[in-house]
Amino acid sequence: MVVSCSSPSCPPFLRVGFLPPAGGEAGVAWLDLDDPRPVPDLEWRVLDVTLPPEEENAQYAGLDCDAVLAKPQGRRGSGRVPLVVFIHGGPHSQFGAEWNVSSAALVAVGFAVLMVNYRGSTGFGQDSILSLAGHMGRQDVKDVQRSVMTLLQSDATLDPGRVGVMGGSHGGFLACHLIGQYPDFYRACAARNPVINFATLLGTSDIIDWRYSALGLQYSFDRLPTPDALTTMLEQSPITHAAQIKAPVLLMLGGKDKRVSPHQGLELYRALKSRGSSVRLLWFAEDGHSLSRGDTQADCFLNVALWFLQHLCTL
After folding, report:
1. How far apart are the first and last CA of the chain?
2. Which of 130, 147, 122, 111 is nearest to 310 (CA)?
3. Does residue 208 sit in helix, strand or coil?
4. For strand 2-7 and strand 10-18, is the pairing parallel, antiparallel, or unpaired?
5. What percent of the chain is modeled with pLDDT above 90?
6. Of the listed 128, 169, 237, 261, which one is catalytic?
């Protein structure tokens, strides 16, 4: 068998495993097809996060979350290292202990990166998945913030006064929630195709059923929006906290996004612009939800790195 191996500090390389006869699996012989090339000066570890009783889900108690930290090895000079909180989308996805080029590149320019697996991430059992329905914008937000505080309390090399946050899709949804719910904590935000208002997203998304079920609401194909359902959607949306946002926000939107309409990001852009807040919009007319074109990926990463350098560091 041929497998791809990596870690947060080592890009993928190929190995071949020669299988023994049945019953002798422990004796697999491995041969590297590539030379592993670990990135120098990047250290990483997995952070286990224990949630306090008041943040437990009553229906799914006993669940925890974790995060993967990547940071420059040792201190740079005499100062502390700024932190970027990286939140995955999905929401049912995860950060594994594997290579992530965006995180490694941010570490290379001087940031620590915390990749958070909140309750609802895959790989933690079905109860974790089910626990998020009906609790979006609350449970997942608290999980991310608890993970960040757990890290800062245990790592004196990081600067609690220079924390930024980034994410795409549901990760962007959480990033925008965090800067609204903790306006004095985060110093910068970068969001790709974020969900901003569940209520206005309802008629523009290609997965209308999920827009109901994710919020704990029943769905049928003949269902029409009701005032109660729309109220629930609005109450769990980042737009309700837009007036409290202080952090500079970078928005990256795909003009052909059918999953999360780019008008979601525009809704937040207008709300911030009308209040004189610092916000920048990058519009990729020919790209969709994943912003996956090569030129788009390069443009997004460079602008994200520059955004955090501008607002978390001194250029």
Report:
1. 48
2. 111
3. helix
4. antiparallel
5. 68
6. 169
Structural tokens at position 32: 């590297």
Q: Describe the crossing of helices 139-154 and 170-181 by its angle, rounded to 10 degrees.
A: 70
Q: Measuring CA to CA, how many Å separate 76 from each of 79, 80, 81, 311?
A: 7, 8, 8, 18
Token pair of 148 as six digits: 């960040």
Task: Outline where DSSP puts E strands in the chain.
Answer: 2-7, 10-18, 29-32, 42-49, 65-72, 81-87, 112-117, 158-168, 188-192, 249-254, 279-284
pLDDT higher than 90, residue 110: yes
Quick: pLDDT tens for 134-170.
899 999 999 999 999 999 999 999 999 999 999 999 9
Which of 111-120, 198-207, 235-244 is predicted least confidently? Answer: 198-207
Q: How confident is the model at residue 77 (pLDDT cuts 50, 70, 90)?
A: low
Please state the φ and ψ torsions of residue 94, each to the nearest 5 degrees: -165, 160
What's the pLDDT tens digit per position in 282-314? 999 998 899 889 899 999 999 999 999 999 985
**Is 289 among the residues known to form the active site?**
yes
Which listed residue (88, 241, 289, 311) is catalytic? 289
Q: How far apart are CA 21 and CA 191, in angstroms?
A: 50
Does residue 169 have an active-site annotation? yes
Band (pLDDT 50/70/90 cuts) for residue 315 is very low
The token duo for 308 is 């955090």
Which position among 66, 140, 155, 257 bears the catalytic label? Answer: 257
